Amino acid sequence: MIFEIIKSEGIAHKSYFIGSKGEAAVIDPRRDCDSYVDYSKKHDMEITHIFETHCNEDYVIGSRELSKRVNAGIYHGKNLNFAYGNPVSEGEKFNIGSVELEILETPGHTDESISIVLTDKEVSDDVYMIFTGDALFAGEVGRTDLYGDDKVYEMAGKLYDSIHQKILPLGNHVLVYPAHGSGSVCGADIRESEFTTIGYEKKTNHAIQMNKEEFIKFKLNEKMVKAPYFDKMVEYNKNGAPILCRIPYPHPLSLNKFKKHMKDTQVVDVRMAASYAGGHIQGTLNIWKYGLTYFAGWMLNYEDPITIIDENNEYMDQILRYLIRLGYDNIFGYLAGGFTSWYTKGEEIETVDIWSVHELKERQNDDSIFILDVREFGEWEEGYIEGAYHIYVGDLQYCLNEVPKDKYVVVYCDTGNRASIAASILKNNGYKKVVNVLGSIRAWKAAGYPLVK
Q1: What local confidence, expressed as pLDDT, does residue 403 receive?
Q2: Where is the Rhodanese domain (predicted)?
Q3: Are 134 and 203 part of one and the same domain?
């Protein structure tokens, strides 16, 4: 049996390539699907089956894209009316060479969620692996709030039953491969681990050690952010995203062409916080490169074209892949020569003030500043800087009336990158006095300064 893990950084997504005796299956493929085709060529295998564990809400799934290239069947849970592919039910089995894949219906994260049990019949009749989608992670379980607060009780009960009645009874030895790793928004606190086992999760996973009543109460009290782009992902993944066939080609834009079209596009500066603060083009939004995989979905719309500003455009292919995984296909181009080509031509630049945590500590009680914490609610609850006001960065553009314009707005997050997104939003909305605290909470703790809980 051939087994490969394909990871997509940023969204912490994991997909899987399984092959045996000339045939292969892919589970939860991403949209830029070259890697699966490359593995099939490398191992002289034909991809015959593509499985989706559920209708993903945090990225565009690549099943139709891959199927177009390899002519494989697509299979997903029957409890959602997908516009493509084939519905599967509990107990259905598929043979990939000597490998048997059996479907378990494991609702809770979503109604149509399935897990896929793998047995390598050439070795043993015992179950070897299970692909749990977003039902069970390393150290965590899936979120149950995607259908709204009024459905959490029902979905939490379903998820508990799926885990305890379907997954755990398979045996402690079974390897568990979820659809996401640490950093995903699909679970509150997923552990950093390539894989796990049912036995290890029984011993270490706080959520599955609860009884059903405790589990449901825990899920009812769980607070997780729901990005606005989730609805677009569900639409694409239910009805089928547009077929790309290739990664879009972004045009290198001369300085004059960039200036001509700047007002007609969403201009994103993908440099790090310190670089953006030191100098940037007025009116641009800062989302650092690795933050695109999530925060683009909060900040960018799907109608207007996107233009990129980077330092030297060295990672443009990676940036494009990050965007198309979220369904952003309308990429107009990028500033040729990067930001350097802007300031070396004598164009105007704007800056964001930078403070160290020591400067913030000195002025913490100054009435002329407004301290803004833009982390998630769970991070805020774990400890915040005294005197801070909390607005999650994803909500900031809708809550500007809560931020005064007559004070220095001093923004912090965990390290300064999300604070830079917030700073760019504030600057673009007429705030003149904006400060980014570089290092933010991480540096604050390192300096030994206290937090309030």
Answers
A1: 98
A2: 261-351, 365-453
A3: yes
CA separation, residue 238 to residues 30, 45, 196, 214, 381 (Å) = 15, 28, 29, 33, 35
Structure tokens at 100: 């048997």
Q: What would the pLDDT profile of 365-419 be if each residue is shown by its tens digit?
A: 999 999 999 999 989 999 999 999 999 999 999 999 999 999 999 999 999 999 9
**pLDDT tens-digit profile of 347-378?**
999 999 999 999 999 999 999 999 999 999 98
CA distance 280 to 270: 11
Tell me the residue range of the domain where 273 lies: 251-343
In the sheet where 73-77 sits, what is the strand order? 2-8, 13-20, 23-27, 46-51, 73-77, 86-88
* b/e map 67-104, b = 16+ CB within 10 Å: bebbebebbbbbbbebeebeebeeebebebbebbbbbb
Helix axis angle, 292-299 relative to 316-324, nearest 10°? 60
Distance CA 161, CA 374 (A): 36
The whole-angstrom distance between residue 59's C-alpha and the CA centroid of its chain comes to: 7
Instruction: Using CB atoms within 10 Å of the CB of residue 169, give its burial: 0 to 12 exposed, 13 to 18 middle, 19+ buried.
Output: exposed
Task: Please give the pLDDT value at position 10.
Answer: 74
pTM of the model: 0.91
| 30 closest CA partner among 18, 17, 40, 41 | 17
Same domain, 304 and 362: no
Note whether residue 452 is domain-resident: no
**Structural domain ending residue among the three candidates 198, 219, 239:** 239
